[in-house]
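debug: dumping io for the single-chain case to check the tokenizer round-trip. Nothing else runs in this session.
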Amino acid sequence: MSPAVIRTAHRWRSAPAPFDRARAARSLVVFGLSFGVVTAVAGIHNGIFAAMGCYVDAYGAREPYPRRGPLLVILSALFLLAFVAGSAAAGDVWVMVGVLSAVAVLATLLVRTLRMSGPGSYFVILVAALAAFLPPAGPSDTAVRVGCLAVGAGLSWASAMSGWLSRPYAPEERAVAAAFRSVAEFTRTRVDAAGAGRSGTGTGGTATAARGASPVAGRNAYVAVHGAWVALDNARKGHGEGGAHEPAPRRMTLYTLMIRLEVLLDTAQDTTGRGGPPVSSDRVAWLRAAATEITASRDPGPLPGGPQSPPETVEAARDLWPVPMPPRKSLLSELRGLLSRSSPDLPVALRIGLAVAVGTALGATLPLLHPAWVAVGAAAALEGGPGQQPARRARARFTGTLTGVGVTALVFLFYEPGTWVTVAVVTVAHAVSRGVPRSALFVRTMLNTPVALLLVATAVPVGLGRLAAFRLLDLTLGLVLGLAATLLLTGVPGRRVRAAVSNAVTATGTAVRERLRTGTVLPAREGAAWLRMAELWDMHAAVPTEEVRPTGTADRLWPAVLAVRRLLTWTVLGAPVPPAPDDAARVGRHMDALARAAAAGLPGSPELREALPAPLPSAPAPAPAHAPELGRRLVALENALVRPDPPRRGPATTSG
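debug: decoded output
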């Protein structure tokens, strides 16, 4: 990308998330209440455990309420079990190594399987490590500590669910509104690029920058739309809104709006690929206004110029429900999916378990002041960041900890805080950290550092200055261990990436073949295709966050992700076509050949090109004459696999 393109791409990025005052206020009340009341009743040594239970509030902020409630119950139970396991292992080094590594692996797998928004398994590992490095306690003391932990977790659950009473659909509305805003930005880049071309500056920097920013804005739009579909899909969990069960009226309205938005996004992507006329500026303005209305729980007005395709009304959308969302899966089937060769989760969990095991062993054998921080630091380099690479995450945590240690040491250099000063300072710092956007890892770490120091200082009375120095030393050692683990165990092996692409192409080919053969797609076929598409999407998001250094794999993977998704969009939402069994067989052979090649190598690799037969089974025309749009999308998929665009170093988002 040229400097002009990069500058324009940065200008067209979505504005950074603002400080979440409501979440900070809730956290202030709950954390202060839990920590303060337990401290007043049972002493600050027990109040610490109530404060640890409040770490539950780091999770589920983006989940719809029907799913958030059960998930946070499961997470709270996981906190309690991890604490009990850590307490039982206290005092024996090798038992601690085995227990904490097992907790790290199992917690990572469970949290990733449940797709729970938040800092991954980081806080579960932290709770287990802190319990393991405490002096061994008897059953009665452990029961008291678990009870205090449950108080904090229970109050945090109630706080997280409090919005259900006033605005029960707010999480879905926020996700859908964000999708509308992102699609508006994407369509605006097309309008600006077309305007620059008409004004005679088509060969200048402005037009070039506009065209270069359009793919970046397009990727961000698809990320936001995918996130909105995930939010609506998650809202079904726990409410039986799957299959024939119709959702609540408000969710049905949001579903109808998302179908319309999907069509608009597909049209805008068409103009990007084929250079057609952009979406009108009136529709761009409508998208922005619609986002504002949706956020305020109101219905937007009609689309200017009339709808481009069904559903025109909520009643018409009922015939489509729940397409394109996949069918419901049981927890057991999701857990089985962890063993799939296309899942990125198992290697990542094993890597975290290895780092925590080594960190635990070193922390227990070296003369450290608070050895739990070594194991926690190892986990921090690999989990708990906002989709960043381990090296970037470790750098942000180190600089944040260094700043937090300096501020804490400076403020409390000549002053040892008392009980209630500790409660007040810790509560405020924790609440502010919860209001900071999740992308600001440096700021959150800086705020969390005095929280950790002040809490530990109540149990290890050696002076905050000495404790702060060891905090920096221990965490740095843990971060180095975490980075070392990324070198020993690859985050996402290439064979799993290839399998995810191949499975998505195979399932999509089956759905396309069925539609051409019969004129429609059975829900089971459509659902299987979208599930494989979701797995490919998760793989694309996981690859860059598990690399020590950027490899460009996710950028090479993105054209294939986009091509498969657009092919599925045509298959399940496109205009009707008459049955064509012969064409269905020909297209099926074409897709099978692409799937076999995708299993042999990453997109754009020599291995993939060598695995393709010459010529392809459907060459030169893979689609029937009466479905030209299908032909274009099949060609786009082949190009995405054989000749993906070179990696772009733009600021596109890669996680949904």
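debug: round-trip ok. DSSP finds 26 helices and no strands in the chain.
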